[in-house]
Please model this.
Amino acid sequence: MPLKFELCPGRMIGGSHPCFIIAEIGQNHQGDIEIAKKMIKMAKDCGADCAKFQKSELEHKFNQRALERPYTSQHSWGKTYGEHKRHLEFSHDQYRELQRYAKEVGIFFTASGMDEMAVEFLHELDVPFFKVGSGDTNNFPYLEKTAQKGRPMVVSSGMQSMETMRRVYETVKKHNQNFCLLQCTSAYPLQPEDVNLRVITQYQKEFPDVPIGYSGHETGIYVTVAAVAMGAKVVERHVTLDRSWKGSDHAASLEPEDLAELVRAIRTVELALGSGDKRMLPCEVPCHDKLGKSVVAKVAIPKGTELTLEMLTVKVAEPRGVAPEDIFSLVGKKVLVDIEEDESMMEEAVGNYGKKAKV
Model:
């Protein structure tokens, strides 16, 4: 499989294509569809590629006792965990409404399917790709069924080992060639010492035929920008309209101005990464014209003299002569004309001297 594929219609990832930026709205919408729409518009306005939510079919994600357990956190939207989650869970019709709105705004729309039935609904909804959250990455029956749907996949790797990720890779690849893996640490907010960006490099070595990305829960944008500099082809960050809102994810989320700055920073870094082809660029020519050095005669050299290194030096000179990297190629050559002390060594004064490079 090539290192690039179409994640969304008309949008390739991997290779030299721009990093795909996912604004993870998750459940930071507070259970309010109008807030959710504002967040979709915010993601678009800030330059993100995709607005992403989290979809659960609660009776399939949790057992009854988990739903009935008391939930007294300051972030709770109900007396039990089930009441809390139901407050934050949009219906199928609301998801269709949000999908229509995202299309109107002009941003890709998807969600993490938090259980197998949620994946079935998202497949019916015709989302462009499936996001597998870290909590399901080692859920191999889920992975197989999701991969068999044939849609592109983005798989986070929080809480997993490299051994597990090798199994994930083999499991998904058996059914679906179009997927990428994201380095992720599942802590909210994430401390810098726990980010472990070097895993990106390890994934690139272990899984060289799939794009690698980063899903971050840290505060600020620096770490995510660094991930892109290390080659992340997809990045995902939680977003919010207000970090002070009730909800455990808000503290690890980017507010609009942060998201906009992240997008700008990523695009700047991508430009700065360049092609890897080391050569003098057009923007460097003025500096080279002003300060580029040449080989100069250290002493007066009569016509016919065989050059030695002691006769030569390197200076900023007018006119520009033989390039400094070719100085050793002059040694042993006979000069064809008289050369004054401190005069530039010109190519025509030495003839064919086997120069190494031309600037």
Observations:
- The longest helix spans residues 256-273.
